[in-house]
Structure to design on (735 residues):
């Protein structure tokens, strides 16, 4: 038997059970076992007694031994789907939990909460992505079709309807804020069709029409709502709705008429029996029609809990709300904002967010994150993965390895293989059509014509993107073979209208990848941290100034020096590629009175120049791959105090100046050197220091003697030249 891993239960649309994205055959889980699985999924989180289960499964009279019969059904489910699919014993059963078992309504709740959180954070494009994916998952709220109107079925349908409503509202707001009124109109119209009394949807619809330059349609929408409310409820639209109507009449902006109130968190009524309205409820509804405060409202005004409030407190919050409460955050708010703790990367995160938002809307994109070693490329790519996963996208990823360059399209094979191998042959053929056999051959490592491979990969990505937005991450593209880079170029040039974003990282100055793709793909170039960002990380002005001076703001080196000084601790984290992460505010933290504070800086490792083996290893790791000829030039340059001339190094090393200049350009492309007038200089003092310290002493002595001699000779020649010029000028004057 297999453990329940990757089991998805879909209550919306056609009821299906999937493992790793592949549906089980309909007959695999049938009969009463199928009905039991539906019940447990709808009542997920609750422990159901065997008697209650038997009552729901056999409403017209159960078997003589209901406990035994239910146990048999549970055993059948465990045998088919894994032992973790149902937990508990004869006293009660419940559906297994995440990550082994997932229910589509829970995923939709997380997406809706993400959409609302993105709107609150000013990220409307990502909000639209999450909201759109939630609507797709929920199939317009059609849940458990064909099931009788039992209480648990009605509760699941109400939950789905509430989620769809919120998702459509978020999608409409996203469209308005991204200047896409057509999209806002479609979402609002769908919400109005589902609930003709949804005033929030009507307001969004009116704003969408007004934003599209169609005020007459906005006024017609208002009149339709007003007529319905008067005819069926005997009341007028709410004040907020009337304000939007008035703004349209006056030709004023409608988006800022009044702040849009936050939606109430989802409250599941799965555990609460559906009852007829009580007398108190009817009195309250009549008070609402008369626009008078109800008894409950008066109780709230007196500070007393109402009956409805007490009932709500007894209800179980939905999955998304439960998770939010466990984490101590408001429902509808994101657990972590994009880039939380990342310092100095707001612009890069905005580029990634915008690219993903456009991709979800059907604008295929290729984003190349290029920069020197340790600048934070992989960390930004990981942030793209977080964005995509949280907003309902499928993430495919692979890393390129230089030693595997000869393997044809190996990074694409690594990224696609997990999806391809989980698909049955007929499913794969249904997705990719005539390219299915070519794709299978590529994944199995068979030789094929390059054009066929490109088309097969493209067909598969198109098929996946038709089902859900896709993010493909390729790390270290500079280490890939030519075919892989060509396929990235091919996707950027020839694929459009697909919900696909390719994010690749590449080391600048290597293999010509960045240069070859420039003009075809969008390039993000993360640079060094600013002095202000280093100050934010260090928390101490004097320390920050010294760290910035020695590192030039290179993120990996900044983090390494802070950690080396004893200030990294729990307050700082350094990712694999060196991007600095601040886990919490440093105000009042260890910087304030730690070993590097105040006078300790003067004699500490930062000011004194000594670095640990860990810092030394990080610096040398950034130089890896340059090759011995370039390293020889850099080691010779490390003995020069300040800017150096390639011609001087040529004299020191006995090499032609043109050859030395070429090697310096290689280091310049990697971000190790910078140009200072007509000379080069190390981009940061720490790299020069480590190179100097790790050069063997005899070799370093040779370089120092040669540099000193050449510099002295240069000074003599310069002095002689100045003297000659002066004499020439003077003799002319005498004449």
């Amino acid at each position: 038997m297999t453990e329940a891993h990757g089991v998805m239960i879909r209550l919306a649309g056609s009821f299906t059970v999937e493992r790793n994205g592949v549906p089980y055959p309909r007959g695999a889980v049938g009969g009463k076992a199928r009905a039991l699985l539906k019940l447990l999924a709808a009542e997920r989180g609750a422990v159901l007694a065997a008697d209650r289960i038997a009552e729901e499964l056999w409403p017209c009279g159960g078997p003589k031994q209901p406990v035994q019969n239910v146990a048999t059904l549970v055993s059948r489910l465990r045998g088919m789907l894994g032992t973790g699919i149902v937990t508990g014993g004869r006293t009660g059963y419940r559906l297994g939990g995440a990550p082994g078992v997932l229910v589509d309504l829970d995923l939709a709740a997380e997406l809706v909460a993400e959409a609302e959180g993105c709107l609150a954070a000013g990220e409307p494009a990502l909000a639209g992505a999450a909201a759109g994916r939630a609507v797709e998952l929920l199939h317009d709220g059609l849940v458990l079709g064909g099931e009788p109107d039992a209480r648990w079925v009605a509760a699941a349908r109400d939950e789905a309807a509430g989620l769809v409503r919120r998702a459509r509202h978020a999608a409409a707001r996203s469209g308005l804020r991204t200047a896409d009124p057509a999209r806002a109109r479609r979402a609002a119209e769908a919400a109005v069709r589902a609930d003709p009394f949804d005033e929030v949807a009507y307001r969004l619809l009116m704003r969408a029409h007004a934003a599209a330059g169609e005020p007459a349609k906005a006024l017609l929408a208002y009149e339709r709502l007003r007529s319905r409310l008067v005819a069926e409820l005997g009341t007028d639209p709410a004040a907020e709705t009337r304000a939007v109507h008035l703004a349209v009449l006056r030709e004023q902006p409608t988006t800022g008429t009044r702040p849009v109130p936050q939606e109430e968190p989802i409250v599941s009524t799965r555990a609460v029996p559906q009852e007829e309205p009580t007398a108190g409820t009817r009195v309250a509804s009549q008070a609402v029609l008369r626009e008078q405060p109800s008894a409950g409202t008066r109780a709230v005004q007196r500070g007393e809990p109402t009956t409805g409030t007490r009932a709500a407190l007894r209800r179980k919050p939905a999955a998304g709300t439960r998770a939010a409460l466990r984490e101590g955050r408001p429902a509808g708010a994101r657990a972590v904002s994009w880039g939380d703790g990342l310092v100095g990367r707001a612009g890069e995160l905005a580029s990634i967010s915008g690219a993903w938002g456009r991709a979800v809307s059907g604008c295929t994109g290729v984003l190349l994150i290029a920069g020197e070693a340790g600048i934070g490329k992989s960390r930004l790519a990981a942030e793209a993965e977080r964005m995509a996963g949280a907003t309902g996208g499928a993430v495919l990823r692979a890393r390129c390895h230089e030693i595997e360059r000869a393997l044809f399209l190996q990074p694409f094979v690594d990224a696609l293989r997990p999806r391809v191998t989980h698909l049955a042959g007929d499913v794969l053929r249904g997705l990719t059509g005539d390219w299915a056999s070519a794709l299978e051959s590529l994944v199995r490592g068979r030789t094929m014509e390059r054009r066929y491979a490109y088309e097969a990969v493209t067909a598969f990505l198109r098929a996946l993107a038709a089902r859900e937005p896709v993010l493909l991450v390729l790390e270290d593209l500079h280490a890939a073979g030519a075919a892989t880079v060509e396929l990235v170029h091919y996707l950027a040039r020839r694929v459009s209208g697909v919900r696909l974003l390719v994010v690749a990282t590449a080391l600048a100055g290597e293999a010509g990848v960045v240069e070859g793709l420039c003009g075809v793909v969008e390039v993000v170039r993360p640079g060094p941290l600013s002095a202000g960002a280093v100050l934010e990380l260090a928390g101490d002005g004097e320390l920050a100034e010294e760290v910035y001076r020695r590192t030039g703001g290179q993120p990996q080196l900044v983090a390494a020096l802070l950690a080396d000084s004893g200030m990294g601790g729990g307050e700082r984290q350094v990712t694999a590629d060196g991007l600095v992460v601040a886990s919490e505010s440093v105000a009042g933290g260890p910087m304030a009175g730690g070993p590097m504070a105040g006078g300790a800086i003067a004699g500490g490792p930062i000011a004194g120049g000594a670095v640990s083996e860990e810092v030394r290893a990080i610096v040398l790791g950034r130089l890896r791959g340059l090759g011995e000829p370039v390293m020889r030039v850099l080691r010779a340059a490390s003995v020069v105090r300040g800017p150096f001339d390639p011609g001087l190094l040529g004299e020191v090393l006995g090499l032609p100046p043109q050859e030395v200049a070429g090697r310096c350009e290689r280091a310049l492309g990697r971000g190790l050197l910078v140009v200072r007038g007509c000379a080069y200089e190390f981009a940061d003092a720490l790299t020069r220091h480590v190179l100097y310290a790790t050069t063997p002493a005899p070799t370093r002595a040779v370089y120092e003697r040669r540099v000193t001699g050449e510099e002295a000779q240069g000074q003599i020649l310069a002095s002689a030249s100045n003297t000659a010029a002066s004499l020439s000028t003077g003799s002319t004057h005498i004449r």
In short: Residues 68 and 107 are 33 Å apart (CA to CA).
